[in-house]
Design a protein that fits this description.
2 copies of one chain form a homodimer.
Chain A (H helix, E strand, L loop, with lengths): L6 H8 L19 H12 L8 H8 L4 H12 L2
Helix pairs in contact in A: 2-3, 2-4
Chain lengths: 79, 79
């Protein structure tokens, strides 16, 4: 599937197709369950996740619409 | 690697080797970055994650010691 517009931002930390995160503390996204990716992104967006790198991710997720979240979760689940 | 003792509990929802979760809302764990798995489990254990299935996971993670978390993260990162 063609990468969604905002994928370039995710790629910076999670790597091409979410396969090679920059740091071990960041998760691989490739092949993850779409529904889980949607619920995680929404949890970050709603400020429901603290700890670890959540501050960074909360900031990122706040810039995503439901459609962005759906498109990105679909894309990464297919990698 | 031989599965850690408490892996049977994880397997019930995340599937053999964390490869086939029962529901799309649960994440695949196989091949995930070990450091990320440790930080996620500790975030659940410390009640730092709400939303999604966090209530279930918080309950599970509260039963894990640091050594359990380390062994499980190591195991799943190698699947």
């Amino acid at each position: 599937a063609e990468a969604p517009a905002k994928e370039a931002v995710c790629k910076a930390c999670h790597g091409e197709g979410g396969k090679k995160p920059l740091m071990g503390a960041y998760p691989k996204l490739a092949g993850q369950n779409k529904e889980y990716l949607v619920s995680s992104l929404k949890a970050y967006r709603d400020g429901q996740r603290q700890g670890g790198q959540s501050a960074v991710m909360t900031g990122q997720a706040k810039m995503l619409s439901d459609d962005d979240i759906n498109a990105l979760a679909e894309y990464y689940s297919k990698q």
